[in-house]
Design a protein that fits this description.
Helix content: 25-40%
Structural class: alpha+beta
Number of strands: 7
Largest sheet: 5 strands, antiparallel
InterPro entries: Carb_Metab_Mutarotase, Dimeric_a/b-barrel, Rham/fucose_mutarotase
CATH topology: Alpha-Beta Plaits
GO molecular function, one term: racemase and epimerase activity, acting on carbohydrates and derivatives
Shape: globular
Protein name: L-rhamnose mutarotase
Number of domains: 1
Order of helices and strands: EEEHHEEHHEE
Amino acid sequence: MKTVIQKGVYGLLLITGLGLMACNQRTNTAKEKSGKDSSAQLTINTSIREGTQATKWEQHVFVVNIVPDSARLAKYLSYHQHIWPEVEAGFKKAGYKEISVSRFKNLLVMTVIIPQGANLDSMSKIAEASNPKCAEWNRLMDQFQRGVSGTAPGQKWVEAKQFYHFENK
């Protein structure tokens, strides 16, 4: 059975936290594929767009911290309860299947599902270039985010590597 990315694809995005990677919060993705590490990025098929068929999907997981200030956290969460339509339109145009964000205290976890083999960096650029509001959103969200322990100065979202997977077939 083939899955088709349609105009109405749910661009969930950061509804609980995250500062959008959506329109392109430049992320650091793994550059090599090894074993069953489904969080690594492949760099083929960079032209995935709305209406493109995909039979397989891959999941990427990213983490970032939110600024430890309750008033700013409330503001950040409020933004994500009212995502700008231009941002989700950018996700759709770039070919994202799903983007979701979860939060535990100050840790945000974003899960992105994209067509297998798609280039996540290219997709992010397409989304951000789709409308100036996407770049504006990223700049706005950036002020709320801080890198997790072990990241380089200025680095925000980092990709988490999968080390265990169970599937009930």
